[in-house]
Predict the structure of Putative zinc finger an1 type protein.
Amino acid sequence: MEFPELGKHCSFNICNRLDFLPLKCDACQNIFCYEHIRYETHKCAAGCLKDVQVPVCPLCNKPVSSSRGQRPDIAVGHHIDNDCQSDPAVGCRQVFKHRCALKGCKRKEVVPIKCNDCNFNYCVTHRHSTDHNCAGINKSSQSQTATKRLPVTTVSTLRPCQVSDIQGSMDEDEALAHAIALSLADADDQLGAARPQLSSHSQQANATQSPTRSTNASCNLS
């Protein structure tokens, strides 16, 4: 037997249960049953303005401040990584103290991982130059491009007037023959300078041999 005049129906659109002990939401002021009275169960739009809770750090048992709408686990995790003074949190921060330099990344590593181009420290995920948009490799590529653009002076790029200044009125064959003649003349000069020294050495050798021959002759006569 139903008593529709007793109690009230739940305001949640998929429930509409007749509850003899209805509950009123303090945020949206609607009536709900005991199953849908919580803000998250009836998707209360004004619940975020009323549901203000301060999370507590499980390590130091201190309240953690957080902005409205921020998830409590994110606020507690940020507190443990930066501000918590408990022994486990401090020890963890001392071990993982090499923070990634990429903007937006909060990972830390036990050992430093530095980029050879920009010399900044990064995590394992962003250690490659292409993963952190390395500024150092861009500068090196620009310098290499500028170096390639510099003019290179070779024999083929010399102007005809410069070639004529070097060779004069001679062509290539004449210049080559002239260079060979100069080298042969230098070789003859060096050989001529060495001949007097050779003749003096031969005269000294003959002078040392002549007394020996005279001594041998005197021995034979006796």
About this structure: The radius of gyration is 50 Å. The first helix runs from residue 47 to 50. Helices lie at 47-50, 72-82, 87-95, 135-149, 160-167, 172-221.
